[in-house]
Amino acid sequence: MAFTNCYATRGVSSDGKHEMTIDEFKQWLKRFDLNNDGLISKEDLREAVRVNGGWFSGRKSRLGIRSADKNGNGFIEESEINHLVEFAQKYLGVRIIA
Asked: Is the pTM of this model over 0.85?
């Protein structure tokens, strides 16, 4: 999966995943917040999956929202982005490093 127009990667790991810190991941993800409301919607996440060459972006974005949206409002807030890391490592081709 290509990491198209990635904000800031540190390199590519041996398994082909792009490495970035959690802060770099947050900055990259915010690029998809098209209405700049500070929330990542299902549509924003769908675009992140699609841009990075992911298949089934609608299904994956719903899965990502469900896995990270701890307060159940249907959006991923700044405080919930850490919960999105597992999803990103599985579906967005990234590896979060320290």
From this structure: no
